[in-house]
Specification:
By secondary structure, the protein is mostly helical. It has 8 helices and 2 strands. The chain is flat, with a radius of gyration of 26 Å.
Amino acid sequence: MKINQVEELVGITKKNIRFYEDQGLLNPDRNPENGYRDYSLKDVDCLLKIKLLRKIDVPIEEIRQMEESKLSFNECMEEQSHRLSVKRDNTQMMIGLCDRLNSEVTEYDKIDASSYLDELKELEKGGAVFMDITKNDISKKTMTGAVVAAAFFIALMLFIIVAAIIGSINDPIPKPLLILILAIPSILALMTLAALLQRIGEIKKGEAYEARKY
């Protein structure tokens, strides 16, 4: 069975199927004639299980441990139920704080942030987990760096293209050579732009959580 068929049967993108293979959760056979992956119904069943477990946010590592018989299914479910209960309690606390802020504060400028942050700090000492703003800030900083670097390189390629055109006007060079000179920076600029767009997409989604939606 080809990957396109598996994608249609399971409802998981090819990119995520490859991701699970890279993580060692799926090991399809290879067609001896052409070396291509040959997925079986067993692989489809495996992917369906992975999809189910990822839908309820079971970590990849724990799925691997269950496949390797290093962790029992019931132990995993008990631990995941506990994690989700903690997440639910944390969410309820944040909802409660939102309601309090809505009733206690009338304007943005009048928020006494320190007192509320102190309260959250005490809750965190008790095991509560709130949004990790450090990770979000790092992602935004990474995106900015990628954009600046790519923009600088693309600008440099455009400068080379313009310089080559102006130079050819003042001092004509053979047309094939001019085409080659213009093609190289143009291709590099387009490749850089494509890589930047892909990088921005990965950063926004969160590379560490590539398959989190499945």
